[in-house]
Specification:
The chain is an alpha/beta fold and 529 residues long. It has three domains: 71 residues, no CATH class; 229 residues, Vaccinia Virus protein VP39 (Rossmann fold, 3-Layer(aba) Sandwich); 179 residues, no CATH class. It is 46% helix and 12% strand. It contains 22 helices and eleven strands. The strands form three sheets. Strands 7-4-3-8-9-11-10 form a seven-stranded mixed β-sheet, sandwiched between helices. It has a two-stranded antiparallel ribbon with strand order 1-2. It has a two-stranded antiparallel sheet with strand order 5-6. The radius of gyration is 25 Å and the shape is globular. Pfam families: N6_N4_Mtase. GO terms for molecular function: methyltransferase activity. InterPro entries: DNA_methylase_N4/N6, SAM-dependent_MTases_sf.
Length: 529
Amino acid sequence: MKSSLNTKICNDEFPILLSPKVAAIWASEYLGKKVTSNNIIYLLNYGKVANHSTNNKENLVDRNELKIYYDKTIKSQKYLDSPISFAQYKEAETTKHIHRIHPYKGKFIPQLVEYFLDFHTDSLKTESYFAKGDIILDIFAGSGTTLCVANELNMHAIGIDISYFNTMLSNAKITKYDLKILEAEIFRITNVLNSYTNATQVKTFELDLNNKLSMFNQMYFPNKTFKRQVALKQVDEKQYGKDKEAEFLKIYDDLIKQYAINLTTNLKGNFFEKWYLDSIRQEIILIRNEILKAPKNLQNILSIILSRTARSCRATTHSDLATLIEPITATYYCHKHGRICKPLFSIKKWWDSYAKDTLKRLREFENLRTDTNQICLNTDSTNVNITSQLELIDKEFANLVKTQKIAGIFSSPPYVGLIDYHEQHAYAYDIFDLPRNDCLEIGRLSEGQSKNAKESYVKGVAQALNNARRFLKNNYNVFLVANDKFNLYPNIAQLAGMKIVNRYDRPVLNRSEKDKNKYSESIFHLKEI
């Protein structure tokens, strides 16, 4: 039975103008999923709905406007009804604890893995495919989501990935740390960074620039009105933004000359030289060298913090973080934030933020961790001898795999011609001088989606499955997450000596990496013929 409060919210008796907190309660009931006050404030800040407050001390949203917005944006109620849409989860839940230690394009949410690995996730499920103590294999490990979920569910897991960075990220997530020692090491490195930045002109320059930028934006891009005027087409955003961008650029140029800031980037250099301002490059190199002084078992996780920091400090606009267009070395009108924004000149803010966030997430995971084995191997899934590779790292785990065998696979193969997995972390490969195996990627973006590319993709995925079969126990279960718009997986299954016994289709409503493009995916359940 619904509470009296929720019943009241759905009636017209409830006030039209609602605070974000009350609006969130109403929206949660109306949509049948959790909505927070921060979600409502986001809609206000970005002009999706109007702010009806008459002062600067409160925010008020019109319930009818909110209903119209949700009616337009929530296209199909059937998505919410699907048990594997996971529409009821907030972003904070789909990126919980270590799953958001570093951005990764194309990863699935942990709830999807939990659904198929854990019998208890859904009372409507009538069959259990895996049990505690089983060994799970991910032949395209990516960011290590399957490995992390397996640990929580008291299962062992092995990941395989051709990308050295992906392997480093996966292992950094599931490694057990002495968090006090890690925190002390972060503190040491941060002090080195602070001493360095305090001795340069950059810190004073940015303080001056931020003050002038804040005053300018308050005058010409007021928070509570500008974005709403743009949404209602009362302002020509493109022309107005262009005019104000040019106006502030004069102020910016004067400050650059006053503080003698070096804006050079090397357009013909590698990724690191092209996409980072000189002051940023110097700080990144400084921390990279300090990481090499840290205990060996902490270097991976410290490198992941620096990589996450570096990703946020590229010389690009806020709206182009995922699709780099050209290096930005001056202030610009930002369509994402609706104001004049600036490039970054120091990594300090992001290093501090991500270091604290990583420690917090590792502590959260530590409370959920089970005493099981997880490891990601940097090798080719089409031909790797899993037990031989494991013996070089963990003989006890290798023996367990030999005697118990792997219970099954949960993996998401690359999509055809969609992502270059090495290139999405090109900055990390340059910063840490990591080895690259781009030519061994299956279905990479640079190969396109031609007939030959599709045939090569089918062969590659089938070969990886065939290679894995020799390590699987009898009556294994294989789950592959794919967007099979070219209908390639029936052929893949046949070539791998398997058959598709079930197919689950789901809309992708919760993206781990922010992306406005909606799509659907399928989970193929394969077994031996």
